[in-house]
Amino acid sequence: MSVALRITPYALALARDWSSARGGFAQRRGWLVRASAGGLSGWGDCAPLPAAGTEQADVAEAALARVLGAASALGAEALLDRLEALTLAAPAARHGVESALLDLIARRRGLTLRALLAPAAPARVAVNAVLGALDDDPGTALSAAAARGARVFKLKLGVAEPRTERARLRELARHLPPETRLRLDANGAWDAATAATMIESCRALPVESLEEPLREPDPATLAALQARAPFALALDESLAGPLAGLAPERLGVRRLVLKPAVLGGPRATLALAEHARAAGLEVVLTSVVESAAGLWVDAQLAAALAPAQTHGLDTAAWLAEDLGVAPSPREGVITLPETPGSGFTPCPAQAP
Ligand SMILES: O=C(O)CCC(=O)c1ccccc1C(=O)O
Ligand SMILES: [Mg+2]
């Protein structure tokens, strides 16, 4: 049975500006992808964010047009087989279309998306709260997230002076509830000496990991920093940049941050996660601040590939509007539905 694709552009305002050492954004633009066959629809989100390692929007749009052109005569499985060739160098476009096709297949088989991807995947996904940059009054965000029961708090570093950030970090850590921890992300802000100083000053703090410490990441420097760090160092956007294609065990860090929109969809993300975990690395799945259509898929995928980890999927509150109801954590956990597919239902304006 052939599959009908519909691709609809969207623009969603942010509730508050996103800032990081790689710049920020005040709006998210992308395409909602619907794949329909036999009266059922699956949904995906193509949400390019070049700063995170995806293609530019015009490249995504061209790839989506190629997929549309090829889709009409093909069934969902046949289109999945051809998708990689149709979306070369367009991972966000591939993620959007592949998600919609897998969601459709799951709904057709009466399976949750996580069960389609990994039969034993649980219905609970722990997530970190995102407090924003360390110069944006994270204390207020910390109180709000702590009140909602979050256990891991993510902070963007490398936005202010290292000395200022060290002082603010110590101050913030004094207000952390018991048994909660900080997840830090420098987004490539530091040279090796600054990174070493920052890691050293975190030694006494409840830090669980630090993403992308280095402006010019190389495995030897990362390995030296990791050897001295009492917590996991992690790579994120470098996996699509200077370190693309290197085997996980050669990267020098203990953890990989996997963004399906950067890696080219659920299947590529699962394959990298399996490789990394077999090599003894931790993996964490995170969003690129996607719409609800993307977040539901990402959350199902997180449950399938690292069920015991805390993932970076609590980004819906950064959007002032959305395409449907987004997964919303309680006590730091997203509960996934037992209904077939991803759990996404479009709001009436986008409806089937
Ligand atoms: O990890 C999270 O909790 C949310 C995702 C996130 O921080 C992010 C979102 C968009 C672009 C880059 C990043 C990042 O981790 O660097
Ligand atoms: Mg990151």
Structure description:
Helices cover 35% and strands 22% of the residues. By secondary structure, it is of the alpha/beta class. The protein folds into 2 domains: 4-110, 2-Layer Sandwich (Enolase-like, domain 1); 116-348, Enolase-like C-terminal domain (TIM Barrel), CATH 3.20.20.120. Strands 5-6-7-8-9-10-11 form a 7-stranded parallel β-sheet. The protein has a 3-stranded antiparallel β-sheet with strand order 1-2-3, sandwiched between helices. The chain has a 3-stranded mixed β-sheet with strand order 12-4-13, with helices on one face. Strand 6 (152-156), helix 6 and strand 7 (181-185) form a beta-alpha-beta unit. The longest helix is centred in the N-terminal third of the chain and has 19 residues, at 91-109. Bound molecules: 2-succinylbenzoate and magnesium ion. 2-succinylbenzoate binds at residues 49, 52, 128, 130, 154, 185, 187, 236, 286-289, 312, 315. Its EC number is 4.2.1.113. Belongs to the mandelate racemase/muconate lactonizing enzyme family. MenC type 1 subfamily. Residues 135-232 form the Mandelate racemase/muconate lactonizing enzyme C-terminal domain. Mg(2+) binds at residues 185, 211, 236.
